């Protein structure tokens, strides 16, 4: 299954990746017990508390369950995820506090195995296994990937669902892919954008379409309707089941909250500064503003360029199975860059697909170094200013916003370069 016993093999990369994650999780327990500044992400405490409330129901002020069961993960303030995540982490309270971290790290490793297997089927040539090992190591040994999962972020679980969806799609197991896409979208809503590019592949090539009507038939036909129905049905079935048990709090915290979310904290998003400046007005007396002003300041407005680009690019590039990875990567990058809230954690959404895309990029070493320097450099430029705000308390909101715009321009330039290098 894996490579031989040579020094550079996938087996060895996997073993090193496993040991690295185990060591970091053990270290996190030692560090957190002795330091005020914790290694563990605050979200992990939120997950753990929500899992605890599932087992120990208690009255929740202003947020009661409305279903037949009274166990309420949403009693934990700021828990805005599917209750399935809390169910997954139930052993945190009775088995081991770091149980969830090991689950997240395991998902990281499974993701690496899936990437390796996909690369072996996609990369041709005598060095297929070696190349697959190199590219899969880009994921398994990525410091951003293993640090985020060992700190207690659940992104690796969603990444697993996304990769399984991609795996099934590339194998043309469309019913399975539809079910997995529904599960992915239930877990977190953004994978819904991948459905558009899947429809383009399922419907067949549009190159033979002579007019708009024939083109439309490649998007809307029995195969695409079946895929949509299965995917949407899976999403609705999971949602209806959770609603029947936990009621409106599930619906609001998991989905509705994110539609009107106002996050004025500093992040890479170009919208954060406007939200910061208008936050008291928006939360206080939005009815006093003119309608056009309310529309411009509405958090829903940010969805227009974001979803327009993500869905449009999916339709444009998602026409062949061979281009599906490229289409998903481009869709994810623009979705993250133009999201109304953008943090480093979201970078994992498109970095997950990068190892699968690299073999299809025809790019010189100098350009690769330049793109990497711009990607890292724009973040470093932003972080240097964010440090003044976060740790020194300086009023640098405007300067930070300007650097955020530089980050967006830089990322778009890098994306354009990668699109041009795609073969």
From TrEMBL:
GO cellular component, one term: endoplasmic reticulum membrane
UniProt topology in membrane: Multi-pass membrane protein
GO terms, biological process: GPI anchor biosynthetic process
Localization terms from the record: Endoplasmic reticulum membrane
Principal cellular location given in the protein's record: endoplasmic reticulum
Keyword Metal-binding: no
Transmembrane segments: 187-206, 227-246, 300-318, 325-348, 368-384, 396-416
InterPro entries linked to this entry: PIG-M (IPR007704)
A GO molecular-function descriptor: alpha-1,4-mannosyltransferase activity
Top-level taxon of the source organism: Eukaryota
Pfam families referenced in this protein's UniProt entry, alphabetically: Mannosyl_trans
Pathway: Glycolipid biosynthesis; glycosylphosphatidylinositol-anchor biosynthesis
E.C. numbers: 2.4.1.-
Keywords, alphabetical: Endoplasmic reticulum, Glycosyltransferase, GPI-anchor biosynthesis, Membrane, Transferase, Transmembrane, Transmembrane helix
Family membership noted in the UniProt record: Belongs to the PIGM family.
Role this protein plays: Mannosyltransferase involved in glycosylphosphatidylinositol-anchor biosynthesis. Transfers the first alpha-1,4-mannose to GlcN-acyl-PI during GPI precursor assembly. Required for cell wall integrity.
Protein name: GPI mannosyltransferase 1
Native source species: Hebeloma cylindrosporum
């Amino acid at each position: 299954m894996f490579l031989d016993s040579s020094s550079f093999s996938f087996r060895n990369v996997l073993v090193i990746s496993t040991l690295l994650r185990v060591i970091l999780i053990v270290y996190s327990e030692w560090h957190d017990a002795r330091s005020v500044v914790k290694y563990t992400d605050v979200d992990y405490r939120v997950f753990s508390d929500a899992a605890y409330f599932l087992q120990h129901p208690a009255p929740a002020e202003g947020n009661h369950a409305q279903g037949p069961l009274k166990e309420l993960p949403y009693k934990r303030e700021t828990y805005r995820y599917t209750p399935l995540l809390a169910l997954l982490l139930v052993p945190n309270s009775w088995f081991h506090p770091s149980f969830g971290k090991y689950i997240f790290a395991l998902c990281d490793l499974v993701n690496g195995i899936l990437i390796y297997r996909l690369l072996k089927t996609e990369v041709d040539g005598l060095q297929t296994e070696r190349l697959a090992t190199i590219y899969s190591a880009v994921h398994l040994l990525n410091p951003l990937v293993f640090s985020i999962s060992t700190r207690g972020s659940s992104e690796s679980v969603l990444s697993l669902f996304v990769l399984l969806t991609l795996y099934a799609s590339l194998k043309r197991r469309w019913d399975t892919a539809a079910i997995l896409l529904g599960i992915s979208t239930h877990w977190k809503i953004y994978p819904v954008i991948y459905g558009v590019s899947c429809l383009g592949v399922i419907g067949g090539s549009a190159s033979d379409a002579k007019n708009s009507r024939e083109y439309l038939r490649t998007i809307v036909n029995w195969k695409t309707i079946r895929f949509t129905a299965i995917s949407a049905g899976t999403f609705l079935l999971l949602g209806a089941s959770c609603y029947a048990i936990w009621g409106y709090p599930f619906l609001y915290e998991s989905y509705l909250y994110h539609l009107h979310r106002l996050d004025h904290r500093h992040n890479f998003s170009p919208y954060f500064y406007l939200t910061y400046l208008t936050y008291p007005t928006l939360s206080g007396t939005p009815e006093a503003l003119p309608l056009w002003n309310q529309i411009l300041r509405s958090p829903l407005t940010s969805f227009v360029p974001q979803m327009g680009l993500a869905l449009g690019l999916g339709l444009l590039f998602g026409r062949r199975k061979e281009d599906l990875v490229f289409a998903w990567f481009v869709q994810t990058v623009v979705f993250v860059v133009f999201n109304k809230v953008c943090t480093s954690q979201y970078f994992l959404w498109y970095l997950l697909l990068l190892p699968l895309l690299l073999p299809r990029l025809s790019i010189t070493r100098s350009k690769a170094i330049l793109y990497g320097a711009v990607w890292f450099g724009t973040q470093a430029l932003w972080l240097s200013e964010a440090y003044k705000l976060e740790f020194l308390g300086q009023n640098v909101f405007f300067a930070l916003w300007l650097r955020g715009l530089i980050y967006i321009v830089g990322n778009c330039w890098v994306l354009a370069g990668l699109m041009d290098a795609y073969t």
